[in-house]
Amino acid sequence: MGLLLITVFVSVMLGACQGQQCPHGWTFALGNCYRWYNGPDRLNWYDAQNFCQHEASQDCGWPCNSNLVSIVSGEENSFLLDYWRTSREPVDPSLGQHYWIGFSEIGLTLSFEWSDGSPITYNNWDNGEPNDGSGVQFCGVMWKGVHNEDIGTWDDQPCTLEKPFICKYRL
Ligand SMILES: [Ca+2]
């Protein structure tokens, strides 16, 4: 009986991350779990990445290897744009103009790489980006566009700005 209970417990714990079900508050798509953080959760890029790796990872009850979201295909970019559009708070359209993605050039290579180690298979930089404006833009965002038209292109911005963010882990 004890062994059965242990087996069930381990199965449930594993299933929380490895089954086809994401924890409460997370959304399943493309084999991954995603969660949007906004409002009081606005953080600079470094703290957002740290949040995804630690606080957010606790949701699944298992080390889920959650990181700031990586985007490896146009399909994933489209999903995320839609997820962002339907998740953000509509109270102030000037807020939520951008959210952090896990693409940055703060690592040892000094070139853009995904914080979760995903290979660079896709990009959706806006025209003229990344432009490293004022020499201080090392972290990537997805943005809505000048007129909030939800274009979902990417921009590099100063990593110290506080923004909403999306965490992701592979099921
Ligand atoms: Ca820029």
From TrEMBL:
Residues 29-168 form the C-type lectin domain. Keywords: Receptor, Signal. Gene3D superfamilies: Mannose-Binding Protein A, subunit A. It comes from the Eukaryota. Residues 1-19 form the signal peptide. PANTHER family: MANNOSE, PHOSPHOLIPASE, LECTIN RECEPTOR RELATED. This is Putative macrophage mannose receptor 1. It comes from Stichopus japonicus (Sea cucumber).
